[in-house]
Each structure stands twice: as structure tokens, then as C-alpha cells.
Amino acid sequence: MKTQLQNGTDGGPAEVHQTAATGGEVLTTSQGVAIADNQNSLKAGVRGPTLLEDFVLRDKIFHFDHERIPERVVHARGFGAHGTFECTRDLSDITRAAPFQKVGKLTETFVRFSTVAGNKGSPDLARDVRGFAVKFYTDEGNWDLVGNNIPVFFIQDSMKFPDLVHAVKDEPDRGFPQASSAHDNFWDFISLTPESMHMIMWQMSDRTIPRSFRTIEGFGVHTFRLVNTAGEATFVKFHWKPRQGLQSVLWDEAVKINGADPDHHRRDLWEALTTGDHPQWDLCLQMFDQDFADSFDFDVLDPTKIIPEELIPVEPVGTLTLDRAVDNFFEFTEQVAFCTQHVIPGIDFTEDPLLQGRNFSYLDTQLKRLGSPNFSQLEVNKPRGCPMNNFQQDGHMRRDNRKGRVNYEPNGFEEGPREDPLAGYVSYRAPVEGTKVRLRPESFADHYSQARQFYLSQTPIEQEHIRSALSFELGRCELARVRRAMVGHLRNIDEELAQGVAHGLGMPELPPPATAAQPTQDLPPSDALSILKNGPMSFEGRVMGVLIADGFDGTLLDRLAGAVMQVGGKIKLIAPRIYGALDDRGDLREAHFPVAGGPSVLFDAVAVLVGPEGEAQIAAMPEAQNFLRDAFAHGKFIGHAMAGELFKAAGLEGKADDGCFDLGLVDDGETVDAFVECCKLLRHWTRAGLAKTAP
Ligand code: HDD
User: Fold this and answer.
1) Whole-structure pTM over 0.85, yes or no?
2) Does the fold of domain 78-152+219-377 match that of domain 1-67?
3) Which residue has a Cα nearest atom 12 of ligand 1?
4) Pairing relationship of beta strands 593-594 and 315-325 according to DSSP bridges
5) Which pLDDT tens digit goes with each residue over 178-193?
6) Closest residue by Cα to residue 367 from 72, 68, 66, 146
7) 148 a catalytic residue
């Protein structure tokens, strides 16, 4: 019997066999031969050796043996999603780039978030930079904006990239650490690389332990050029601002999340996409001309520097909405090939030496990973808004060679595509001259001033987190000379920072400051650099974990769930066992997690609703005690009802502060509303000892 249709060899539909036995689809070999037995290999006798002629087994195992492709040399662990970019500002006077020609113009996109250092199977909450790579399928070709969640980079010249990556990844003799910069080789390299100090401040901040991919910013990092139809250029820096607000976890949470749910970030995005909670980012541009570039304190070609938002405003020009999970991880997330040199008319490069090197590098990586120059024919990589039309042919796995006899240009047959000076990509006519040298410009020499500016722009809590992170990372560094060298660099950034870290490391005395090519300047702080000053002030898209125990007040739970939903949040139920717990009416409420598998670090706020029947049971469970103790220590807002025994067992008796709400006291719903309102602040930072929970 034959019914269903799939793609045939000619691209058209082919029929799929239906099995006479079950009426379902028939399993076939890769040659389309129906398989009669998918459980047993072909043997000489039931206990006999397997026969070489078993082409069904060979076909199956052969393909399985070749399932893996090389993982990315950096950014191996990632998660992708489909989305749409909507233009909100007509930029046609500044650039001819297709996505910006008309307000309301929609452009399909594919986005891949990633960590940098860890291998494919590493945990999501490693302290690490996050990649934020966006492919725009525009009407004039694919444009890849391959950025990070930090606006600067470790190095100024791509010549140093392989060394940086070797230093941060696992050490070659032992193959560890995985996904951690807290080791000798990384800090040895960094201590010898003063240009990395600005990035180090960002890397040691909470930016590298985000709450979710949904709560990170993205940056193009380099200065690019926008070019209009008249061939005039404007310098530009690209920023993605999350509508969800910035949010990070504490280090202690990151450590525990990695154990409890190493896939926390991908699960979070998957859930958001599949439940209609679509995250959004505004694309914002800093645009400036040559006069500003000439007057700026730093070189706009130096990728270790930002342009403070106070100097050049960050102007929104469009919104990215991620609205669809991939159908298949490998096909999209693994095979997507981003390249910085994938630009479209209207977007051009600058001479930033890091960008220039990147433009050379990414094609190599894609060829190595995907194994064929035809990777642009894969669904996720091929242009969607316009045809790919040229005389390229053949190569591994080529699918669509041009028909007919003509495969070159010019040709007298008047067949095939031709160049188009008007529609085609024209490079900005940047004047270039100079002698061939291997030199770094003087204008790239100040490595400390913006590092200091970043540190001083943080709130005291964030500054303490930076000091703690440095003490932790350098504390894992066994080489005393490296620890001393690093503190020497920190002295050029901020004396109090250096002292704090030296104290954290137990250094008897401060080492001398590192030699600096240029003295540190005092630059004005910038609020845009702090996470806490740019939080969401909303519980939208956040999750409250509600721990329930038998006999709890079911009406209260419903009221709480309603209030959380009202502000756009979600509730997850945690019970002593995954089965659930009985409310005061005897109704079973099924749990999303058993308490052993749903620690409070997975949630933005918590509530503990207990009833007389479950009181003793829950108070005796170490996991439940940890749930509450951690939530308290991590500054979470806590709603509770009849949870006195658990508070006592967790060592929190008498410690409830104004971040804890007794929801069982009054039955009017006001306390529930006040609790949920407070949760918008995400953390009760004034809770005693809170900042100490970081390393
Ligand atoms: Fe890179 C991947 C971002 C410097 C060479 N890079 C890669 C990805 C991101 C970035 C987000 C993952 C893309 C994806 O999800 O598939 N890289 C950056 C940023 C940099 C940077 C923001 C500095 C501003 N990278 C950089 C340099 C070089 C590379 C200087 C080499 C000269 N990057 C690569 C690569 C990767 C890559 C080896 C590995 C996997 C891939 O390209 O597709 O070619």
C-alpha cells in the first residue's frame, strides 16, 4: 500500500510505503528497500556468526558511525531559534541594507546563543561569555551579525586568537578543565596580555552567569560601516537590548544549577518558545561620523573599547522576536554556519584588525565542520529572501547544479545570471595607504581606563561580585607569579579592587602595579554598564517555584497562581515526591518536580505552602530544607503559609525579613498581591549577608 508523500530525488514528492501489517510507514534502508526485521542481524544459525552480506545491518551501523561532525572549536555548546526582525525606523538615508528600508519591513532570522569555552556537552551556567549570533535572511542576501553578550573582546588582533582559545580551553596534557577559565593557563595568558583587562572586568562580572539567554544583551563588538545608495558611510556599533531586562544569577546558584539542570538555559528558551512567551530584543545603533571618531579618547577600530552610551546615544531601529523552536537540533542549530564576512549591500567592515582576521577565519571553520563548500545549500544556511544564482558547481554533496551546457560567464549563449553594478555589493571606497608593518597603533595602548570605568559604573553589590569572582578564579590558579601579576594589573584599574582580591587570596602584601603603556584616566561612570541598573522591574517571563506539602491551602495556591499569571509569570509546583501533594480538600495537585529534582536555584522566587498533614514530612526532608535555606541565602522573595516547622529545620527560625510574606495570615488576597508585586524586584538585596553568597 502507498499513501504518504515526502521529498523525492528530483525534489518533488515521493511516495512512502505503508506497512500492510500495521498500516503505518514502512521502515527502509537508505536505498529505500523495506526492512523486514529491525531487531536481529542476519546470522548463520540462531547462535551463529553474523553474515557479511547483511547489508541492512551494515547500512544502519555505517550511518550511525558517521553521525558526528566536528564540534565548533569555540562556541561548541549552543542553542538556536527562528525569529523575525521588524524594522521600526527607516534608515534608507543612512544605509541601503534591505532590512532597514521601510518601517514594518519583516526579515526572517535564525539566532544561535552559545557559551565559548566549553565543549558541546558542558553545562549552561559555566562562567563564560555568551555568543549571540544572528543570521538575517534578507531580500539582498544573508547577513550574519556574529556577536557576544559583551561589547568588547580579550584581544585587539586576530593573530592572538588561537593562543587565547588554547589558553582558556582544557589544558592539552590533562584534558581539563572543561568550560572553566579558573585555571593556570588562562590566567597565565591573561596576565601577559594587558589589552584583555577591560574584557576581564566584564567576564568577572555577573554578565557571564546570566539567568537566561532571554536576559542577555548582544553586541556586534566591532565598529562597522553603514553605506547608503550615494556611497556615503556612517560608522555604527550594533547593540541588542532585551525587552526582558538584564538578569543574572549568583555564583552559588550557577554552581548548583549546573548540577541540578545543566541544560537550564536551553530548557528555559525551549519552554519560552513552545509556550508562546516569545522573547524580544531591540536592535539599537550607535551611529557616528569621522569627526566623532577623530575626537574620541580611544580608537574606534580597537575592539577592546566601548563608546559610552552617554557620548553616542543607542537608537532603536528594529525589534527581533524569537518565535519558533527548531524542528531538529542538528539540522538547524548544529549546521548553521555563521560568518562575519556574510554582509549585504549597505553593511561594510572597518579596518579593525580583529574583524579583518575574523572575516578570513569563519569560512575555514565551516568547511572543516560541514565538510563541503556547499554548506550554503543547507536549509538553515541558504538565502531565503533572494535566490542564490551563480555558476558554482559540484563538490561534496552538491544538490542543485545548473541545468544545461553553460557553466561560465561571460557566455555567448545569453544564459545564466550576470553581474549588476547597481544591485550588486559595492565596497565602501575607504582610502587606504601605508607601508607593510606588523605594528599595533599607539591609539590602542590604553588598556586600563575603560576597565576602571566599567568597575566604577557597577553598584556596590556588583563590585563585590567582581572581586569575589576574581578571588575564586585566581584562587584556582596554582602559580603564585600569575596571581601576583594579575593583582598588579588590578592595581592599575582600582586600588580597592586590587586590595579586595589580594585579601581574598590571602596575599600578605600587594605586588607592584603592572607596567602600563599609558596611565589610567578617570572616565565618568556609565549606568548602562550595570546589570542591576537595567533590570526588568517586572516578573514577566519569570518562574515562581511553589513547594507544596499535604494539606496545604488549595485556594491560596490558586490565588497565588492567578496573581503570578496576571503579571506574566509562571508557577511550577514542587512536592516531596513527583506524584504531587494533596490540598486541604483532598485534591491531588500534580508536581512538576520532586523537591530533590527542583531546587530553589531554578526559580526566580519561591513560595512554601504547607498543611498539617505534610508539615512534619517536609520539615524532615534535607532537600526541602535546602530549598528554603538557599532561597533565603540567594535573596529570593519568599511567600509561605504554615511553614514554621520547615523554617525551623532550615535554621531560619526568627530570621524572616520583609522579603518574606506570610500568605496564610489574612485571607483577603492583599498579601499575595503584595508578595507578587515585590517579586518584580527579583532579589531582596538588603537581606543580611546576601552579597557574601558569591564565591
Ligand atoms: Fe568567533 C564562532 C563571536 C572573535 C573565529 N565566534 C563564533 C561564534 C560567535 C563568535 C558568537 C559562534 C557562532 C555560532 O553560534 O555558530 N568571535 C565572536 C566575537 C569575537 C570573535 C564576538 C570578537 C569580537 N572568532 C573571533 C576571532 C576569530 C574567531 C578573532 C579568529 C580569527 N569564531 C571563530 C571560529 C568560529 C567562531 C573559529 C568557531 C565556530 C564557528 O566559527 O562557526 O571561526
Assistant:
1) yes
2) no
3) 75
4) unpaired
5) 999 999 999 999 999 9
6) 72
7) yes
